[in-house]
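Lab notebook, design round three. We kept the backbone fixed and only want residue identities now. Task for the bench partner: fill in a sequence for the structure below.
Input structure tokens:
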């Protein structure tokens, strides 16, 4: 009997694991719940903006993801690994880095010293030399103490500090806060460039133009819950969303 040819196996291509997945996240302070079942997914290489009025839980969301605020319910996954309830340094080693609101530089350290400490994380494409190429003004002031830098330079320093950890996903909390319009444009260009290089970003931002320039997806947070999600194009096409939930137009 002649053997029948066997069919070639069909190759299955699994979807890539998202760098960051948040499911049903709830958290708060002192017994008061702030987040109520937040779901958020950051696809590989994408930028996700989290928008909302003041006091809606945006900073709490980032701090809960990083482990600064205890989780009441839900979970956080980094590259498919569950990190819910882990120590902050464990979450950081898993691949998350945060750029906090208000910059929070180490005032007694120089730019160079700050980056030397930050470079003790996992090796990768981001090095101090590359950062100085990316931020020439930091290179010119690398011997200066961090508290002697301008607000824009401090923002570049804390972004650089986070990038030296070669993050799986970068969390940015109000990077334009307190900066002059010209410096905000520079920070926006930096974030857009990071996005072009494939660094996944979660951006909490009041500056609407900066947020949608750097993002692929928009999530609106109100009273600790996601009330709208969509692509940037869908957000742009729905002016009512911005007016209703943010109190501003998009022009």
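Proposed sequence:
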């Amino acid at each position: 009997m002649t053997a029948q040819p066997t069919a070639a196996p069909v190759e299955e291509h699994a979807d890539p694991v998202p760098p960051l997945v948040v499911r049903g996240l709830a958290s708060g302070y002192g017994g008061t719940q702030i987040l109520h079942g937040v779901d958020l997914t950051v696809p590989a290489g994408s930028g996700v903006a989290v928008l909302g009025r003041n006091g809606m839980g945006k900073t709490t969301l980032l701090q809960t993801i990083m482990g600064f605020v205890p989780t009441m319910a839900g979970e956080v996954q980094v590259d498919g690994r569950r990190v819910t309830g882990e120590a902050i340094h464990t979450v950081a080693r898993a691949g998350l880095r945060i750029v906090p609101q208000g910059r929070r530089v180490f005032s007694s350290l120089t730019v160079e010293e700050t980056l030397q400490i930050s470079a003790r994380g996992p090796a990768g494409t981001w090095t101090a030399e590359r950062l100085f190429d990316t931020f020439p003004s930091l290179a010119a002031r690398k011997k200066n103490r961090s508290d002697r830098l301008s607000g824009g330079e401090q923002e570049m320093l804390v972004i650089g500090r986070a990038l030296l950890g070669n993050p799986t996903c970068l969390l940015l909390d109000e990077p334009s806060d307190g900066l002059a319009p010209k410096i905000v444009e520079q920070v926006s260009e930096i974030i857009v460039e990071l996005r072009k290089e494939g660094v996944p970003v979660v951006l909490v931002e009041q500056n609407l133009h900066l947020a949608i320039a750097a993002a692929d997806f928009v999530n609106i947070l109100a009273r600790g819950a996601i009330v709208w999600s969509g692509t940037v194009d869908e957000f742009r096409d729905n002016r009512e969303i911005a007016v209703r939930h943010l109190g501003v137009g998009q022009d």
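Keep this in mind before ordering anything: The first strand starts at residue 20 and ends at 29.
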